[in-house]
């Protein structure tokens, strides 16, 4: 009887493992579709957030992230206030933008997709 339980246990573990792998593959293909469709997009995983600031502008919350190892801010907007990401690790999909601040060009990254890893 014990071998029967071991077999069922092994089948359940295998199913759970394959289910997780299938979900991970679906996520990758979604990101790959975005990257292949838009040449300027960049996807980075497991990035460490050093600082997160939110400010209210019109009816939007403008979020600015500073990422460890990068000198440019990463910006995104949300209708609702976003949770504090300081110290968190995130996956980002973004592209470079240039803004004029007081007549000077200022480089930043526009975040298209953000997910806490």
Question: Can you characterise this structure?
Answer:
The longest helix has 36 residues. The chain is globular. It is α+β, with helices and mostly antiparallel strands and 117 residues long. It has a 5-stranded mixed beta barrel.
Task: Characterize this entry briefly.
This protein is of the alpha+beta class and 117 residues long. The protein is built from one helix and five strands. The chain folds into two domains: 1-37; 40-117, OB fold (Dihydrolipoamide Acetyltransferase, E2P), CATH 2.40.50.110.
What is the typical, i.e. mean, pLDDT? 82
Would you tell me which CATH topology of the largest domain applies?
A: OB fold (Dihydrolipoamide Acetyltransferase, E2P)
Structural class: alpha+beta
Number of helices: 1
CATH class of the largest domain: Mainly Beta
Uncertain residue segments: none
Order of helices and strands: HEEEEE
- Roughly how much helix do the residues carry, as a percent range? 25-40%
Q: Distance between termini?
A: 42 Å
CATH architecture of the largest domain: Beta Barrel
Strand order of the largest sheet: 1-2-3-5-4
- The percent range for strand residues is over 45%
Principal-axis shape equals globular
Write the layout of secondary structure elements.
Layout lengths: L1 H36 L4 E16 L2 E8 L5 E6 L10 E13 L2 E13 L1
Parallel strand pairs: 3-5
Antiparallel strand pairs: 1-2, 1-4, 2-3, 4-5
